[in-house]
Amino acid sequence: MCRWVKAPTCVCAARQARANAARAQGEVFRGRHKQTHKDWAIKVQERGEDVIDLEQEILIMRSCNHANVCGYLGAWLHERHNRIWIVLELCAAGSLADIIVALDRPLRTPEIAAVMREAAQGLVYLHEHRVLHRDVKAANILLTESGQIKLADFGVAAVLTDKRPFRNTAIGALHALRMC
Predict the structure, then answer these.
(1) In whole angstroms, how far apart are CA 81 and each of 6, 77, 91?
(2) C-alpha distance across the termini of the chain, in Å
(3) pTM above 0.90, yes or no
(4) pLDDT over 60 (residue 73)
(5) I want to staple 160 with a disulfide (CB 3.0 to 4.6 A). Which of 14, 123, 130, 179 is the partner?
(6) Handedness of CA 163, 171, 179, 138 (dihedral sign)
(7) Mean pLDDT, the chain, whole residue set
(8) What phi and psi, each to the nearest 5 degrees, are found at residue 87?
């Protein structure tokens, strides 16, 4: 028996539209756990050729436990539809990019400072655990309804090891850097 009730509303309509266009991110739904009645975000993604990258992303999320990193509950394969459900902490206020668009103005200096302080705390945690996010941008900084800042989307993240103590690849969203 399924423990989830999938609500018909998407967590973030703009994110779903972008994701559907690229078909890389999948769709994100708001779901309620039947026993706890707690709402979670459910990322539903087709199981395709990038399954190894997806497994790496899940391993990284599963190992993280910090106030400024999006929480992870679990992942399940829905074999009949060949889709993977990844259940994450609900950040219902949306991404920082969505908020900037909704405000129709740039963020003010105190707002930027608050976001950067919280995002930096999440990055310090990740770096202490030898995880490189490698795609920090406004679309991957999420906010909860209470205003907490969370780093999300570990699809291109990397874990440093003793055998591989550094990375020499450039990856991420170059258009985010052009905005500076």
Answers:
(1) 15, 9, 26
(2) 49
(3) no
(4) yes
(5) 130
(6) negative
(7) 78
(8) -100, 120
Identity (one letter) of the amino acid at 115?
A: V
HEC string for 11-64: CCHHHHHHHHHHCCCCEEEEEEECCCCCEEEEEEEECCCCHHHHHHHHHHHHHC
pLDDT digits (tens, 9 = 90+) for 87-130: 999 999 999 999 999 999 999 999 999 999 999 999 999 999 98
Q: In this structure, what token pair is assigned to residue 37? A: 């009645």
Q: Which two tokens stand for residue 145?
A: 């309804």
Q: At what angle do helices 13-22 and 96-103 cross, to 10 degrees?
A: 120
Which domain, by its residues, includes 91? 4-178
> What CATH number is attached to the domain comprising 174?
1.10.510.10
* Token pair belonging to 3: 């423990």
How would residue 170 be classed by pLDDT, with cut points 50, 70 and 90?
low
Catalytic residues: 135
pLDDT at residue 150 greater than cutoff 90: yes
**Residue 155, C-beta contacts closer than 8 angstroms, at least 6 positions apart:** 53, 54, 57, 135
Contact 48, 39 (CB under 8 A): no
Number of folded domains that form the chain: 1
